[in-house]
TrEMBL record:
Keyword hit for Transferase: yes
Keywords: Kinase, Mitochondrion, Transferase
Organism the protein comes from: Pipistrellus kuhlii (Kuhl's pipistrelle)
Top-level taxon: Eukaryota
Name of this protein: Fas activated serine/threonine kinase
InterPro entries: FAST_2, FAST_kinase, FAST_Leu-rich, RAP
Amino acid sequence: MVLLAQHLARHRLREPQLLEAIAHFLVVQEAQLSSKVVQKLVLPFGRLNYFPREQQFMPCLERILAREAGMAPLATVNILMSLCQLRCLPFRALQFVFSPGFINHINGTPHALIVRRYLSLLDTAVELELPGYQGPRLPRKQKVPIFPQPLTTDRARRKYSHKDIVAEGLRQLLGEEKYRQDLTVPPGYCTDFLLCVSSSGAVLPVRTQDPFLPYPPRPRPQARAASQPVTQDPAQRVVLMLQERWHFCRDSRVLLGSRALRERHLGLLGYQLLPLPFEELESQRGLHQLKSYLRQKLQTLGLRWGPEGG
């Protein structure tokens, strides 16, 4: 079952029948499974963005986490990372991994940095997606950037990526001063391309603006009308998101869990997302067509640039 789970995750195979079989195996064999095995069985569910129909899936994992959390810190956090991608974080397990005892314990281990990175992401998920959580949080001094650079798969497949040609298209269309590439925004998400846009829709030189939105995000006053600005900063931040073929489950339009998580969190932070799907990028024949495509995409958001755009 572990080999099957690893195969599905590695090759991005979102096969419901096989995933349901793994979930059922996990539930039936709960008493015999250690968290080090469970982390491998749960991995494909988060990676493939698939929540099983097995009704005992979450109760089973919560019991395993309660039983094993103190024995295998890295395995515990790996299980929570998979559940984070599925938007199913159990409060009790979060309270344990954010406790001073757990944090002090992991700081003396060889995998301390990766665990702190995962805990930082979990803390971000709590901030953005769990308003009802009242337990302990990760101390500020323990936080590290989540993904301070493009993900490993993107770096490995750079020669197959559309990033370079999109960058050249934006350079010719907007000018180098009106976008930033591979900028890491708080709390540590690397963006493909970021634009700053005025309230009138003009694309602004990035050097004249703070490209970062505040984190934690400022609360939206409920009584404020939707048409009124929610902060004193009138500039919007637009993030162009490359959606490459390998960002999806194989032969599917379902984003991988890590990609969906990044897009979800950037949206909750207040960034306006503009996806650039690989099918649309692949259909552009040459730089001239790509520039026309980017122009149309930006104009659908009401953006302006050049002499008339300010």
